[in-house]
Write a structure and sequence with these properties.
- The chain is of the alpha+beta class.
- The protein has a single domain, classed as Cytochrome P450 (Cytochrome p450), CATH 1.10.630.
- Helices cover about 50% and strands about 10% of the residues.
- Its main location: endoplasmic reticulum.
- Its cofactor is heme.
Length: about 475
């Protein structure tokens, strides 16, 4: 009978602990001991954010989940989101098996996954060094246009008059832009090895956080295969090996160079005699650039093709404006303001596609309060960008694709909206925002200068409701017909 007594004590302890953790926690779907909100959660990843959007009538300001062992709060109220985004208290990152062990070196590395002094140092150094190589200014425009020209010419010559499947079409091209100034290297858009890495990377984005929610999944072969553990492991090992090799090549050549040639050179120079610079963090920063460099903008460009196919009248109007103002020459960022309808269309595509429905997590670094609720240390908070983009009181008709909402009355200027934050905001705003804006602007214009995008007569019509949502939200592969101009 002793085992019954022990079991009863264990049940009581679990229930009491659950009650204590639930006390004054933000409201949400039913939460139970051990399994938490499992019965109420439809899917993980960004699907949880999209689910929170549906729950706004019940939980207008915030909604709380117990996701396995993690406490998660989704912020639906914009003013509360600003408080979270600009607070040092909520500037932490998840430290878990994937970020610390698989991706890291028994600690989180780089910029995206770190917090505190390491994060501030790595971010500050990365931004200042990238700016020296033209990041976010004129020096990048020609690199962006060069990569756009390569992929657009390839599409134009190979797929004119044919059906084309859009599936991570632009990811490698977009990645090349940043990777060129980081390492001096680029990859061909059709490189099979790089295509496979991008495919597995998409899987990693899709299954983000799953092993942190349910750690037990790591320990059986069946469950590992179910959520792609082995592929995640292979990807991180491949990335680490690849970057270690690139860094070794730079180390061997560094003494022969008169001045640093790229980001890695500058980092290695700064590393001499300074313990704040480590090879592990350099690998982490390279992984950050590689992972984030192509995924978000690449996915947005896939959405550009989808919405242009679905709205030929918008596509025609954009192209007419582009030819009237630019003709066939390559665009630069100096052309901003001369093609307001095209810029408004890009913004509307970003709003409708909601590629980053919440951005990455903000972890509470200490016990605190938010809007009267108790937020314990290590709670993960996400602000619901998707809900900001679909707020009927703010946008009027958010379900409609209408670029004009971003234009003034006479259509001569684009408008700024506080709640239009496709790159997030606050202390952990995307550090590649200026580059991403330039990439979207130049790529979109060059696509429309050279290609007509039509709905395929031989395949299903592209459907914005068919998407994959992990860390980012990208359309499932779809067909369009391309016509060269």
């Amino acid at each position: 009978m002793l085992w019954l007594f022990v079991l009863a004590i264990a049940v009581v302890v679990i229930c009491v602990r659950h009650l204590l953790e639930s006390w004054n926690f933000p409201p949400g779907p039913p939460r139970f001991p051990v399994i938490g909100s499992l019965l109420s959660i439809e899917k993980y990843g960004s699907h949880l954010i999209l689910q929170a959007t549906k729950l706004i009538p019940q939980y207008p300001k915030m909604v709380g989940f117990f996701a396995g062992r993690m406490r998660v709060v989704i912020i639906n109220d914009f003013d509360l989101a600003k408080k979270v985004a600009f607070s040092d208290t909520f500037s932490g990152r998840l430290i878990g098996m994937y970020t610390e062990t698989m991706r890291g070196y028994n600690r989180n590395i780089g910029v995206i996954s770190t917090q505190g002094q390491i994060w501030r140092h790595n971010r500050r150094f990365s931004l200042s060094t990238l700016k020296e190589f033209g990041f976010g200014n004129k020096g990048m425009w020609s690199i962006i246009a060069e990569e756009a020209a390569i992929i657009v010419t390839d599409l134009k010559t190979k797929w004119d008059g044919q059906d084309f499947v859009v599936n991570q079409t632009f990811n490698i091209s977009v990645l090349n832009i940043l990777w060129k100034i980081v390492s001096g290297k680029r990859y061909h858009p059709d490189d099979p090895e790089m295509k496979e890495l991008m495919r597995v990377l998409a899987l990693v984005f899709k299954s983000a956080y799953i092993e942190e929610v349910f750690p037990i999944l790591q320990y059986t072969k069946f469950t590992q295969e179910w959520y792609g553990h082995s592929q995640k492991q292979l990807l991180t090992q491949t990335f680490k090996s690849m970057f270690e090799q690139v860094i070794r090549e730079h180390e061997q050549k560094l003494h022969t160079k008169e001045s640093p040639r790229d980001f890695i050179d500058v980092y290695l120079e700064a590393k001499k005699g300074n313990d704040l610079f480590t090879k592990e963090d350099l690998i982490g920063i390279c992984m950050d650039f590689f992972e984030a460099g192509g995924e978000t903008v690449g996915s947005t460009l896939s959405w550009v093709l989808l919405y242009m196919a679905l709205h030929p009248e918008v596509q025609k109007k954009c192209r007419q404006e582009i030819f009237n103002c630019l003709g066939v020459r390559e665009p630069t960022m100096n052309d901003r303001g001369t093609v307001p309808y095209t810029e408004a269309t890009i913004m509307e595509i970003q709003r409708c596609s909601s590629v980053a429905p919440s951005g990455l997590e903000h972890k509470a670094l200490e016990d605190t309060e938010l809007d009267g609720y108790t937020i314990k240390k290590d709670t993960l908070l996400f602000y619901n960008i998707n809900s900001f983009f679909l707020d009927r009181d703010y946008w009027g008709d958010p379900e409609n694709f209408r670029p004009e909402r971003f234009l003034n009355d006479d259509g001569s200027k684009t408008l700024k909206y506080e709640r239009f934050i496709p790159f997030g905001f606050g202390k952990r705003v995307c550090m590649g925002e200026s580059l991403a804006k330039a990439e979207l602007f130049i790529f979109t214009i060059m696509i429309l200068q050279n290609l007509r995008i039509k709905i395929s007569a031989n395949h299903a019509k592209p459907d914005p409701g068919q998407y994959e949502a992990g860390i980012t939200r990208s359309p499932l592969p779809f067909h369009v017909t391309l016509e060269a101009i």
